[in-house]
Amino acid sequence: MAHDSRHMVEETEQHYRRNLALATPVDLFWGLGASLVAVGPIITVLLQRLGATNLLIALAPALQTVGFGLLQLPAVHLTRHLRAKKLVFMSLHWTAGAWVLGGMLVLAWGQTRPAALIVAIPIIGGLYAMGLSLVTPLWGQMLPRLFPDSRRGFVGGMLSLAGGLGGIAGGAVAAWVLTAYPFPRNFAYLLLAGGGLQCGSILLYLFVHETVPQASPEEPEPRLLTVAARLWRSDRRLRRFVLMRYVAETGMAATAFLAVWGLERYALPDRFAGNLALAASLGTAATALFIGRIGDRRGYRRVLAWALAGYAAALLLALVGGRAEVMYVVFFLLGVAGPADWIGGVNLMVEMGDETTRGYYLALSPTLTLPLRLLAPFAWGWLGDRVGLPWVFGAGLAFLVMGWLGLLALVEDPRRPGQRIMRRVEGPPWLSWR
């Protein structure tokens, strides 16, 4: 019996190491491609060069964030009975090919139909994000099948590190392409390469080992809205988390205009958009592994708190900095905060549920914040056109500080209960009902 147990442990460790060795280069090349089509330093600058106002530039972050949350709950419900999820997971990643279409449209319309591109490029970004909204719940369900529970933070850190290193290379490539070719061909080449790299990289997942559980007895199929409503009513941790996300993501939406503002304020050429993407990827690569380890050892609530602090520091520095070089530090901080937000948020949701419900938990937060994800970028874009982007950054900073305080006061870490500040305060009935 002891021999069989030892053999199972060794086999699990072998699968873990093999999966990590295969997933890491996927994220390396995915990160390279993602930096070429990054909504902050690349897509928003492309729209600015096409003549879009701040309100129209807001189409890009709005449709991407809405697209990312739009289909997560249906995706969970439709894939919950898939015993093997790997091939579906891979196939849905190929929606990144939408950026290839975007590159072709920029080549064809860049000089003749810029107004059409101002609408088409954000829509393509939204389609790309909708593909990711189908993938994300699957990733939450696959994660425990690919890697041990005790190493999820380390794995998330390693994958973010690989993505950051790929993003550094992508930022350097973007800066060179933006300098070497005239507008709009330079942006078209970035979209073509970014979409192609992301589609191709996912093929390595053909060789990962997915631990497929034994078939469970047939159960009555619950209604999607019934399951979602039951989880919402029964788990106040989820309600508090979503409340905090509403406040924090309102502030995070303001960061989408940082690249546009920096290039405009300091009269910088297009190549600086690539440099800013490089700076963000450098922040990811420098800290992702450390952040993942902290999540494993100290809990993911702490990681999420650092993410919100990083976003707030980026907005504050953009406001008080007086030189163009400050924007590199701003995007470095965004590169730190983004993976921390992903590692902390995803793992908090995963740990709230079990094998049958974790996908629902993972999907509920972005689904319930969809109205905010649509309206906040437009509200900030409208405000930026009326009174200037510095006012947007100041207001966004205030929301992030309130979100950070809300996280510490209200949100419970399933791994380390009893840490929230207001643990003895029940609050309004809707926050505490059972």
Decide which structural class fits the backbone.
mainly alpha
Task: Evaluate the radius of gyration.
Answer: 21 Å
How many distinct beta strands?
0
How many helices? 20
Q: What's the helical proportion of residues?
A: over 70%
Beta-sheet strand percentage? under 5%
From N to C, what is the helix and strand string? HHHHHHHHHHHHHHHHHHHH
Mean pLDDT: 86
Give the overall form: globular
The end-to-end distance, rounded to whole angstroms, is 44 Å
Low-confidence stretches: 429-434
Largest sheet geometry: none
Verbal overview:
With 434 residues, this protein is an all-alpha fold. It contains 20 helices and no strands. The longest helix is centred in the first third of the chain and has 35 residues, at 2-36.
Short structural description:
Helices cover 77% and strands 0% of the residues. The chain has helices spanning 2-36, 39-49, 54-57, 59-70, 72-79, 86-93, 98-109, 114-146, 152-180, 185-201, 224-234, 236-252, 258-265, 271-298, 300-320, 326-352, 358-368, 370-387, 389-410, 429-432.
